Amino acid sequence: MTLQDTVLMQLRDLILSGEFSPGHRLAEQQLAERLGASRTPVRTALVTLEQEGLVETNETGKFMVRQFTAQEVIDAIAVRGHLEGMAARLVAEHGISRQLQGELQACLDEGDRLLKADPLTLASYAAYATMNDRFHALILQACGNRALQRAVELNDKLPFAPASAMLPMQGTVALDRDWMLYAHRQHHLLFAAMRDGQSARAQALASEHTEVAQMNMRLALERRSESVQVMPAMRLVVG
């Protein structure tokens, strides 16, 4: 985990929560001061968010929050579920190498260790997101289907489509932590299915795994709605 990972996670959270509304200019220096970081990790995170479709640049090259709808996010997550399901099925059919087993098991062990913390800290949350990205990337890389890999890369350019983009945004909330524990349990089940060559089960588990992201989206919208009621001047398009 790096400072950039933490900054990226915090900026995603601020956008999803409605702290920054569509069209809001994201000034690097102000963000750096707010997040307690230098401008370099902030700028790198903004570039990543631009690639994910959450921010855009105006005619002067300044970063601004992009307008998106809840339906865009839901659709992108659903597509990712189908694509990753296919990837998991292919891995199960091809068989997992000893090296891949070791790498996936290391991810599982790291997730288990991080989720023992209660409440989760910002650092452990960011570290879990890094682990989660690696777990999903390993499966995609091992599927051997370049067209499928490109499809995932393209889908990841849509708002909150990447694997860790819709992890719970408030790790200290009990319900969020329960969902993270559930999601990581799915990681264990998915690994076992691929290892044992259960291709249909692996595909189903990978597809169902996105239900956590869908739930997190609904929770985030509920929290944003509550925030908007408290601060009616804050506006964010949600559908």
TrEMBL record:
Keywords: DNA-binding, Transcription, Transcription regulation. Residues 1-68 form the HTH gntR-type domain. The keyword DNA-binding applies. GO terms for molecular function: DNA binding; DNA-binding transcription factor activity. This is GntR family transcriptional regulator. It comes from Hydrogenophaga crassostreae.
